[in-house]
């Protein structure tokens, strides 16, 4: 009989809106001991999952599963880059963008059962100013909202929508220069998103044509946001028809340089990082293995 698949589960106890989860009980109930051997660890602080994932890979775990949202997925995946271990996901965040893109079941029992015999494949990885992202990164309004959301105290889609609406009235675009391989754009930045996966999470499709294995980032640029355009963008995010809507301009690229006229906030996978006036964005083809 082949050796059981060795899996390490890394649980972020703070992720999502439903904090009660008896993970050990669910795993013993739904994982097949003939197929899988496993261990469970909890993160103690932000950033901890990077170290725990790297250590799990070093001691021979074949799959390291992020039990959390896109922030936890980002940390686990960063820890696994350059190792022999693959990333798994048990979605437990508020958005779960990468899990949704990779068609991981949103229901926890179904997602656990799926890990008895996962499919292994490789996906592209993006980086912005040296910080890796797996789903999306972005400049401008979406980064600003992720900063305000982190400060809001409560999580969930309702809080996110409230924060976005409030900040819409305050946020002003910043002039930027975007250098692509064959062209340079002089424009205003309300939002410039770099999409490896198609969605932000919650099935909000910022770049519905993004292919996570094509060696390219999909850029979505929105230069200004009138009320009419805001309504169009909100609808298109839900419908997945932003490219056809006329409300945004799309490009694909492997490498992008952005210069901003004044400091502009940026996020990776929905977590606010800080501000900069220079952004160096790259795509690293098939740099991460996933087990989904
Ligand atoms: N033990 C911990 N205590 C405090 N923060 C933690 C801990 N473990 C992880 N974190 C941080 O919590 C942040 C949020 O987690 P995560 O993104 O997984 O959940 P979420 O925000 O609810 O989901 P989503 O990103 O899908 O909206 C992560 O960026 C991570 O750094």
From TrEMBL:
GO molecular function: ATP binding; kinase activity; metal ion binding
Cofactor list: Mg(2+)
Stored InterPro entries: ATP-NAD_kinase_N (IPR017438), Diacylglycerol/lipid_kinase (IPR005218), Diacylglycerol_kinase_cat_dom (IPR001206), Lipid_Phosphate_FormReg (IPR050187), NAD/diacylglycerol_kinase_sf (IPR016064), YegS/DAGK_C (IPR045540)
Residues in DAGKc domain copies: 2-132
The entry's keywords: ATP-binding, Kinase, Lipid biosynthesis, Lipid metabolism, Magnesium, Metal-binding, Nucleotide-binding, Phospholipid biosynthesis, Phospholipid metabolism, Transferase
An example Gene Ontology biological process: phospholipid biosynthetic process
Signal peptide: none
Domain of life: Bacteria
Cellular-component GO terms for this entry: plasma membrane
SMART domains given in the database record: DAGKc
NCBIfam families in alphabetical order: YegS/Rv2252/BmrU family lipid kinase (TIGR00147)
PANTHER family noted in UniProt: LIPID KINASE YEGS, SPHINGOSINE KINASE
Protein name per the record: Diacylglycerol kinase family lipid kinase
Native organism taxonomy: Bacteria, Pseudomonadati, Bacteroidota, Cytophagia, Cytophagales
């Amino acid at each position: 009989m082949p050796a059981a698949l060795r899996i390490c589960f890394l649980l972020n106890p703070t992720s999502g809106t439903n904090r009660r989860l008896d993970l050990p009980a669910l795993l013993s109930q739904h994982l097949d001991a003939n197929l899988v051997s496993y261990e469970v660890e909890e993160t103690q602080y932000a950033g901890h999952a990077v170290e725990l994932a790297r250590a799990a890979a070093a001691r021979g775990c074949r799959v390291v599963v992020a039990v959390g949202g896109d922030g936890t997925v980002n940390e686990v995946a960063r820890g696994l880059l350059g190792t022999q271990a693959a990333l798994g996901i048990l979605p437990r965040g508020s958005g779960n963008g990468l899990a949704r893109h990779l068609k991981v079941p949103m229901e926890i029992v179904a997602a656990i059962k799926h890990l008895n015999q996962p499919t292994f494949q490789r996906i592209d990885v993006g980086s912005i100013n040296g910080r890796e992202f797996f789903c999306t990164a972005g400049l401008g309004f979406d980064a600003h909202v992720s900063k305000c959301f982190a400060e809001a105290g409560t999580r969930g889609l309702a809080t996110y929508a409230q924060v976005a609406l409030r900040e819409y009235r305050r946020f002003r675009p910043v002039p930027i220069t975007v250098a692509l391989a064959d062209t340079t754009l002089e424009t205003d930045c309300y939002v410039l998103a770099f999409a490896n996966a198609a969605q932000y999470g919650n099935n909000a499709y910022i770049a519905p044509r993004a292919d996570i294995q094509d060696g390219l980032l999909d850029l979505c640029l929105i230069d200004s946001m009138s009320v009419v355009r805001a309504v169009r963008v909100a609808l298109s995010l839900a419908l997945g028809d932003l490219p056809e809507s006329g409300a945004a301009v799309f490009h694909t690229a492997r490498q992008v340089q952005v210069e901003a006229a004044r400091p502009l906030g940026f996020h990776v996978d929905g977590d606010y990082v800080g501000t900069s006036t220079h952004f160096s964005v790259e795509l690293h083809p098939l740099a991460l293995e996933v087990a989904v």
